[in-house]
Amino acid sequence: MEQTKGGPDRRIGRRALIFGGAAALVGTGAVLARDELSRLWWQVPGVEKPRVEGAVDFTGARWVAASPANWRRADRPADYTIDMVIVHVTQGSFDSAVKVFQDPEHGAASHYIVRDDGHIAQMIRELDVAYHAGNRGYNERSIGIEHAGFVDRPQDFTDEMYAASARLTAGICRRYGIPVDREHIIGHVEVPGTDHTDPGEHWDWDRYMRLVRQAGTAVTPA
Question: Are 123 and 100 in contact (CB under 8 A)?
């Protein structure tokens, strides 16, 4: 669980004209570089992707909205490439994690939380940037998955949790073409600059990666 907020798109057209012109107007030394401006093209009225309230990206997940203060609106992967999944442990119960992610003062939230019985809550859409990694660049390129429990309690990582989380990660990897390896599926502890230790020494990475690969070959909805 995190407590710190966190290649240019090559398409040419309305977005390039709008933001290319904007960059020219503000001139050298502008606060936002041209590539950053181009990533905001979808905020132009009439351009944003349609959004359905309560929709989930993973079949079987239940939508429980995080506070808007704990994530930022985006249009991934059109503006930021998604090439990573980051595994977290909440250091608390499922209900407490939901509560803090709904607290605007907390300043952080992950896209998903997985419970010990395999139940999955989605709190932020995958196209949006969640403040979960404690590193802005990693936030922009990743999807965060929390697991309810404590790093020093291996019994919290149940068979049902591993299986459900593996299906979730396999679906994410399939959607965005993410390689199923430990360079692209990492723990929070592996994010540069973080002071977190999760998922901890009791998280069975060999087992988890095997399950993700198995789930990736199964014909199941993402």
Answer: no
CB 66 within 8 A of CB 123: yes
> What does the alpha-carbon distance between residue 202 and residue 45 come to, in Å, rounded to a whole number?
48
List strands edge to edge, sheet with 84-87: 62-63, 120-122, 112-114, 142-147, 84-87, 185-187
Q: Name the token pair of 77.
A: 């992967």
Which tokens sit at 46? 């009439």
The helix-helix angle for 159-176 and 205-217 (nearest 10°) equals 60
First to last CA, the chain: 24
DSSP bridge pairs for 85: 143, 185
pLDDT tens sequence across 102-123: 999 999 999 999 999 999 999 9
CA dist 42 to 45, 76, 121, 143, Å? 8, 10, 27, 20
Give residues with Cβ within 8 angstroms of 183, minimum separation 6. Answer: none
pTM over the 0.70 mark: yes
